[in-house]
Amino acid sequence: MDSLIPFTTSGSLVDCVDRKMLVILRDGRKLHGVLRSYDQFANLVLEDTVERLYHENTFAENWHGIFVIRGENVVLLGEIDLDKEDDIPLNQVPYTILESYHRSNITSKKYRDDIKAQILYEQKGFCKEGGEGDGY
């Protein structure tokens, strides 16, 4: 049966269906969920999806349920080993606690990126265009 599926990026996802996956998006969000479907463009449908935030040795989850992801926004897709997932020594905290840390990290990263882009523009002649989140 596997020999009938052409070897393409989305064709190789057939073994990942009905498995718990980690998806990292272009905007930096980290989603955990069960891969239920995909298409030839690597658009994904995740079920029981949670968005996770990490800070030092803690994490927080925000439940989203069914999540449809456009393939061009996927940076990384990987299967989660259910046996090893529980062995990670992280403490779960409420989402509202880590949300403020996460927002401040995003703000400081954007500030640093803007300074870096300005220096590259002034000193090295790089173009400022294309910095709308297409860092991957």
Largest sheet: 6 strands, mixed
Number of helices, counting only DSSP H or I runs of 4 residues or more: 2
The fraction of residues assigned to DSSP E strands is 25-35%
Poorly predicted ranges (pLDDT <50, ≥5 residues)?
none
Radius of gyration: 18 Å
With strands numbered from the N-terminus, the spatial order across the biggest sheet is 5-1-2-3-4-6
Approximate helicity band: 25-40%
CATH architecture of the largest domain: Roll
Task: Look at the structure and give the mean pLDDT.
Answer: 86
Summarize the helix and strand pattern as letters: EEEEEHEH
Can you give a write-up of this model?
By secondary structure, this protein is an alpha+beta fold. The protein folds into two domains: 92 residues, Roll (SH3 type barrels); 38 residues, no CATH class. Helix content is 25%, strand content 35%. It is built from two helices and six strands. It has a six-stranded mixed β-sheet, covered by helices on one side. The chain is globular. The chain starts with 19 loop residues before the first strand and ends in a 12-residue tail after the last helix. The mean pLDDT is 86. Belongs to the snRNP Sm proteins family. InterPro entries: Lsm1, LSM_dom_sf, PTHR15588, Sm, Sm_dom_euk/arc. It comes from Serpula lacrymans var. lacrymans (strain S7.3) (Dry rot fungus). Keywords: Cytoplasm, mRNA processing, Ribonucleoprotein, RNA-binding. Component of the heptameric LSM1-LSM7 complex that forms a seven-membered ring structure with a donut shape.
